[in-house]
Amino acid sequence: MSAIAEIDAPTIAINPFSESFSDDPYPFHEQLRDAGPVVWLSKYGIYGMARYAEVQAALNDWQTFMSGAGAGIQDLRKGNAWRPRSIVLEVDPPLHDETRAVLARVLSGPAIKKLRPAFEAEAERLVEDLVSRGTFDAVDDLAMVYPLKVMGDAVGVPLQDRECLLPFSNMLFNSFGPENDIFRQSITESGAVVKQLFAQCERAALSPDGFGAQIYQAADEGRISADKAPSLVRSVLSAGFDTTVAGLGNAIYAFAVNPDQWQLVREDPAVGRTAFDEIIRWESPVQTFFRTTPRAVAFEGVHLEADRKVLLFLAAANRDPRHWDNPDRLDLRRKTIGHVAFGSGIHVCIGMMVARLEAELLFAAFAKRVKAFELVGAPRRRRNNTLRTFASLPVRVVC
Ligand code: HEM
User: Fold this and answer.
1) Atom 11 of ligand 1 has which residue's CA nearest to it?
2) What is the DSSP string of 219-280?
3) Which of 99, 112, 119, 349 to mutate to test the pocket of ligand 1 (most atoms within 8 A of CB)?
């Protein structure tokens, strides 16, 4: 009997890495959710989960749904893995506890609080400049510029080399999916910068007081081995950059197409402080991540085979009507607690306070000056195997 015939999960022919899926994932999400708690995606021979309850349960059960075989479609335990795994995102306890503890200290609440004045000054400066221009591209001129500056400074990477983060991150998030056209293209585009990115993460290249230097300090103190430090710096840079670019671009789009919601931000600073979580529930920057079954398991009445990849549709869970009222509506007054745009469980995003701070300060700077955002050209998506993001978002601000 073939492996596929043995499973009870309903078979779905949808290709979640196709152009049509990426263009408009929401009707596909509905089909996936309606098909059952677990589905078999025959195109790739993987399981999928798109309902909130199961995605949330899988994220919180690392023994059954492990990360150590990689957060992408490839099983990184196998000899032919083309890339090294992240030593925080793609490992299980006990190694995960060790590396995460280092990042948890570096990215702690008090550490993030210290960033606030510099992040705020930069948000004010950038927004003032954009408002004086009136019309700008919310991706090229805002969503990419701001994290590159503030995150780059916080980590301590040299100013002149930061641009290499753009093609590198795009490639990395493509690499979680199959080896399709966009993945191959991003490999070509990032080829020239990989060496540069690795060089940026060396101790000598980093400023003495940033997150990067603090990770090396943790190695000096014996909290991680010295060889892990550059890899952990890379993990922070690669996980923390393109995700935020996507989130900020999606935010400006959200305000442009929901002007009533932007009015709420203008009227009530408390709404501005929490708006980002509803925006990323509604339009999740990280659409999916994989887990792997280390052994056969019965889950929600479905038999899952051992050593299979499981695609968790975070974005579909975030709009599951079984969990959320009127989920397709952006509602900045909604209680978003429990959304999985930052994940959940032991791998929950460790940089979420940085991302929230960036968004909060940009929204506050715009709220002081801008009555409305208007689209002045067709937004263009940047297709990526993991992220939902824009390539271009031309907007005008009404003051
Ligand atoms: C809007 C912005 C962001 C989104 C949507 C996002 C999303 C996520 C998600 C969904 C995960 C869970 C992965 C999993 O369960 O396999 C995650 C993990 C992670 N994120 Fe973020 N992230 C964002 C910003 C950041 C920032 C700014 C940083 C760094 C400063 C960061 C660093 C990390 C790291 C290191 C992990 C791995 C944690 C672990 O495996 O224990 N992220 N992120």
Assistant:
1) 349
2) HHTTSS-GGGHHHHHHHHHHHHSHHHHHHHHHHHHHHHH-HHHHHHHHH-HHHHHHHHHHHH
3) 349
Looking at residue 164, which CATH number applies to its domain? 1.10.630.10
* Domain span including residue 138: 3-398
Report how many domains make up the chain: 1
Q: Which residues sit with their C-beta closer than 6 Å to ligand 1? A: 59, 67, 71, 88-89, 100, 103, 107, 235-236, 239-240, 243-244, 247, 280, 285-286, 289, 314, 341-343, 347, 349-351, 354-355
Total-model pTM? 0.96
- Contact between 29 and 36 under an 8 Å Cβ cutoff? The reply is no
Give the pLDDT of the chain (399 residues) as one tens digit per residue.
344 445 689 999 999 999 999 999 999 999 999 999 999 999 999 999 999 999 999 999 999 999 999 999 999 998 766 777 899 999 999 999 999 999 999 999 999 999 999 999 999 999 999 999 999 999 999 999 999 999 999 999 988 878 888 899 999 999 999 999 999 999 999 888 888 888 888 999 999 999 999 999 999 999 999 999 999 999 999 899 999 999 999 999 999 999 999 999 999 999 999 999 999 999 999 999 999 999 999 999 899 999 999 999 999 999 999 999 999 999 999 999 999 999 999 999 999 999 999 999 999 999 999 999 999 999 999 999 999 999 999 999 999
